[in-house]
Amino acid sequence: ILEPLLQLTDHYLISILRGATDSLTSALALQQVEVVLSDEPLMHATISLQNHLLGTCGVRLFAAPGLVQRYRDGFPGSLHGAPLIVPARGSALRRTVEEWFTKSELQPRGVAESNDAGLLELLADRGTGLLAGYATSASERSTRSALDSVDDLEHAVQNINPVTMKRRQKH
After folding, report:
1. Which of 54, 59, 102, 140 is deepest in the core (most CB within 10 A)?
2. Residue 65 CA from chain centroid, whole number
3. Listed residue (123, 141, 159) closest to 41, CA to CA
4. In the Cβ-directed half-sphere of 160, how many Cα atoms lie within 13 Å?
5. b/e burial code for range 103-140 (CB count within 10 A of at least 16 → b)
6. Would you state the pLDDT for residue 162?
7. pLDDT-derived band at 29, boundaries 50, 70, 90
8. pTM
């Protein structure tokens, strides 16, 4: 997602921040940031925001090598009772994963949740459970951890939304 920005020939400072939605929208309002990337459209009562759909990506389960084949065989039925590592409650990815499991009538066993993606990846890398993540991160993930793809959650998708302040038209 960020690759095109990193290829710019001009010299720009790209600041990458992670934070709660309300603090990021406030940073937009205060012009401390130009754009916020979000996995869901953002709205604010007093700030005029403009959501742009950049694209969509699938949702995939990742696991340490010792767990991959166990859950790949018989997928998705093999996920019933499987140890699952998920983002914290309230995140768009978490809602998408929960909806997929509900529609699939499968009940995994939650073993960890956090808003720290690095910690979740570390837990999955150690074999604690299956990690729900964006399918677009598969190649990036393989270069920094031993995690492998188990399978995609069919029809589970996440939007990628750059959000900016609404600009007033000058006439």
Report:
1. 59
2. 22
3. 159
4. 12
5. ebeeebeeeeeeeebeebbebbbeebbbbbbbbbbbee
6. 85
7. confident
8. 0.77
